[in-house]
Amino acid sequence: MRATPAVVMGHGGGGAMSAELVEHLFLPAYGSAAAAELGDSAVLTVGDGTRLAFSTDSFVVKPMFFPGGSIGDLAVNGTVNDLAMSGATPLFMSSAFILQEGTALTDLGRIAQDMGAAARAAGVRLVTGDTKVVDSGSGDGVYINTSGIGVIPAGVDIGPRRAAPGDAVLISGDIGVHGVAVMSCRDGLGFGTTVESDTAALHGLVAAMLATGADVHVLRDPTRGGVAASLNEIATASRVGVELIERDLPVPDTVRDACSLLGLDPLQVANEGKLIAIVPADSADRVLAALTEHPLGRGARRIGTCVTGHPGMVVARTGLGGTRVVGLPVGEQLPRIC
Amino acid sequence: MRATPAVVMGHGGGGAMSAELVEHLFLPAYGSAAAAELGDSAVLTVGDGTRLAFSTDSFVVKPMFFPGGSIGDLAVNGTVNDLAMSGATPLFMSSAFILQEGTALTDLGRIAQDMGAAARAAGVRLVTGDTKVVDSGSGDGVYINTSGIGVIPAGVDIGPRRAAPGDAVLISGDIGVHGVAVMSCRDGLGFGTTVESDTAALHGLVAAMLATGADVHVLRDPTRGGVAASLNEIATASRVGVELIERDLPVPDTVRDACSLLGLDPLQVANEGKLIAIVPADSADRVLAALTEHPLGRGARRIGTCVTGHPGMVVARTGLGGTRVVGLPVGEQLPRIC
Questions:
Q1: Which of the listed residues A213, A247, B39, B124 has the most CB atoms within 10 Å of its CB?
Q2: PurM-like N-terminal domain spans which residues (chains A, B) (predicted)?
Q3: Chain A residues with CB inside 8 Å of B138's CB?
């Protein structure tokens, strides 16, 4: 007898299984009601041609408080960043809570305060909300959904299909920090040094890049599935190859050590305050300069190039002169990281 | 020793405890980042003055499938209705899932199909999404958040503060049906006759009312907390009293019987396909005619009047010639009804 196919943790990992769920279950079921892509954010035109970015994300991170932040910070910054990656100025946000009966009101209050502070810092207004409660045993503390609306300035055209051969691939700083920070405070895992989450709102960094006048082709915040998942999606959508130079990847020693211990590739570990920018080669220096001048982009650097070879595939040149394929993570390596 | 104050089921009931959580926890914590009200939907102005309605709702109904519908129908229709109650034409929707590990993919597929069908019927597009998975034991099947964006036509001004003394209070049909339908399929509860949920998208009914040219003051879909909660909120926001005529309330026998059995007031039981309309007395007949001509408003009738007396309070004239106060439900009488 064959078991009934069921949801597994990997369906929520942001990798290949998540993509399959969208392609083989959600899109066929939604039919003509669905947009062609159900991506991290949608671009909508309303009224006189105003272009809106619209995005949604649910947060189930465990534990709810971790070094450097909380589920409240993530819930605001995550949606701000999804909007910012289409070049939008984030303006409005909803907050919807699913609370487990028995959750301490002091914890909920701390989380809501973190959300308020993050929203003020990002200049977005929390305008509508909802609260549901599930019985004890049917939930796990606090789950938060935020959805956001931003306005895309005229002339800005940023999207995952725009990467072109020759483009430079930039990263705004150290990778893998958020994932390691959350893992470090789970049961029995401590890596000696405290790693703090990099959770941050990135729309200011995006504005600094756009102010250079460069034609930014693609932006992406590499959250679940890490840099590997984001670059694979971009390579597929743009039909280009991506070639990374492994020694140029900014991986802090603490992240490298933790990844060794857990058998993880830092390229597949979640970030919550970093962005990938893909820009024409001749504007790479200008954009890098703008990034490094911003407090959230001090560690920015170029990590690779888009190429005509191996379209849809990401490879890394290793220190030994060889190359290795950087795959889309299949399932979930770090469950409930955001 | 005093117990730590904690979340209880009543915080999710849509009544007095839900309102307290918003007023005493969320609004102070959000501070200046929050809109003055965190209502069911917000009205936002973008671009050249286009007015958007923006709404969010999470759905945790148990069981996920019930007579007349599923969590998928509710998730689409609920957000469509929140938008429609500000007079907006619903256009775009997000769908975010929190799935429990082990949920059958066939169940998830049925739910997604229901969402697609409901979205097509309502003319909204599902444009962006998210999926998270929580470990078995940390969730309960499928939780869905939908957020929606609609455009409010020029000249339309509908809101909970606009009820005025003398206005007529209309209901579009039988009350209490959804709540009883969900309760009827819970463990051990059967009421003899099958009651089907009234889940439906109401924006067409709103359009029919607006087409009469009447100056519709307030619209509300009385979901959690029922007609009682909606009218209490309106009475408070508009500083009017509301006087209902009890014998005019359309309560089907099946709902009345089930409520007797469970000790519930039908006025406090959730609806998912009904609306309350508050309109100037001199347009009440015209609006009622438009409602009753529409398939979703055949059972429409006038149930009361806004008055200058007892502002903020809802009373019902009983069959015996007395009056009783129709209170805002305190906690949650029917948990996880939507």
A1: B124
A2: 40-152
A3: 62, 139-140
